[in-house]
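Exercise 7.
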Amino acid sequence: MILSNIKLINFRNYSKIEISLHSRLNIFVGRNAAGKTNILEGIEILGLTKSHRMGNDSNLIKIGEKKTKIIGTVRDGNIRKDLEVDLTENIKKVKKNNREIPKIADYISNLNVIVFNPDDIEIIKGSPSIRRNFINLEISQLSKEYLNIYNEYNKILKTRNEYLKIMITSALADRHYLDIITDKLIEKAIVIYQYRKKYIDAVNDNIAKVFLDISKVNGLNIVYETNVEFESYDTEFISNKLKEVYRKNYQKELNYGMTLYGPHRDDFSFYLGENNLKYVGSQGQQKLAVICYKLSEIPIFKNACGTSPVLLLDDIFSELDSQKRNKLLDYLKNDIQSILTTTDLRNIKKKNIEDSYIFSVKDGNVERR
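Solution. The predicted structure, written as tokens, is:
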């Protein structure tokens, strides 16, 4: 999958720019706050319809304007896809080949992206909800079934929580009806657990080698942490275990008025050997671990989608020494389109950026060197 060009209209600090991209390595160089990140953010939105940055969609619109457009051409083998995301303060529209797609879920996966930004260190340091949101986003690109079932799970979860609250105050509330809701919740939970376990296992097939190649340190892996222990991820086993957990903890959940068990309470951690990087890792180790996590997803996307994703890497060189910078660029010369930002190209070997496109970003202007 190759993004041939990207056009931003009234987006962040850009009135209108159009950039033709290299099919392999693209590097945007400029000072902090020059607008480099905004370019990557535009590509991210073209793929995912939303940004990792906090705030409303209206914040994406250039000050003084009423709407913004992000337009790009994707080549996936012999297939060409013209994609467009239009945003106003209250309305988001997505288009493929000039036809509007009513459901966002049906648009996702036209442009698969793997994104790293400096805030992603919170995947290690932050709360479990940050990690759950991240893993949901990644698996949703790989499987529309997962996205649909996850959305259905959340609707059922909301209904169950509301009914638990009703049961606290109403003598007319029916325990049998709660059991029906619970069975529906379990049905969706099983699929979510299985997708997540398969995904994390696939990450672990790759991440240790990537981290070793770049850092010369062995032993990085991801540990999937559920609040229900499963000896097996077989459908029948998960179903029986969840039924038992909900039955045993009925009074506890009733007292809290919420569902205390299930994939909405999942977590995962990064370990280097026996050490949890959340507590013992340096800032540089944590950042490199997350970058390697993103790189380890590349073969997962290839296997699931039959094509490579586009790799977006924002400010990846800070806190990495020159050896790790060059090892990382060696990795990016593989069969994948990479788009990255940096404030400078110091300590980068010339051979690692040969044949790449290098762009200068300054004051809302982008020029290819």
